[in-house]
């Protein structure tokens, strides 16, 4: 890994939900962060998000350790890392789907998923649903993933502005999610990173309370404040202003020196911590 990375994550159940169906995971060994937002009755959403990330990470580790091989005919035009991430995503989707089909209680479950993997000087993103990945670079803040939602489709067609879509009644209607079908399509993105970059991942609970500009204002303080404090402050402020959903975020800060320095905040049950 060419750069030193700082990773942090924070999650809150929100003001009215009985369970936290979000799942957040960070790994210094992998240079990896993920956010999943589960959905479904009973405990299904909580199960879906947990299983999606655990299966993804397990498959990624097995590929890295040569316990699983990438088939030669599996997306041969993509880079090896992109193929690894998409294979891990496919395994994770099938695991969630199979569990939903085998257990009546979980029949309606599904989850969004946004993952970032840093390798050398590149960021690789796998994404499905409306969890988001943003990039903060040199004072500019932009969403790099596309929401797979009906509201986003309305923005694309000019029916709604982005601000209107954030408050729209169809905001939570997803057009793509994991576990709903045996085969689903994931977005795969890749771009160069540079020292000073911050990748911000969040569930839609964050966006219900804060605008992109408000999130940017928090992250712009990264030169003076640790990303742990910033991540926690974003989640707390969003929860304070809305709080009708679970609120979760993860951050990766790219620094110039080699090695790893990690700091974390956790406020939720997880098999990973």
TrEMBL record:
Origin: domain of life: Bacteria
SMART domains assigned to the protein according to its UniProt record, in alphabetical order: PP2C_SIG, PP2Cc
Any Pfam family matching the protein: PP2C_2
GO MF entries: protein serine/threonine phosphatase activity
Domain annotation PPM-type phosphatase: ranges: 6-254
InterPro entries for the chain: PP2C (IPR015655), PPM-type-like_dom_sf (IPR036457), PPM-type_phosphatase-like_dom (IPR001932)
CDD domains listed in its UniProt record: PP2Cc (cd00143)
Gene3D superfamilies: PPM-type phosphatase domain
The name this protein goes by in its record: Protein serine/threonine phosphatase
Organism whose genome encodes this protein: Elusimicrobium minutum (strain Pei191)
Phylogenetic placement of the source organism: Bacteria, Pseudomonadati, Elusimicrobiota, Elusimicrobia, Elusimicrobiales
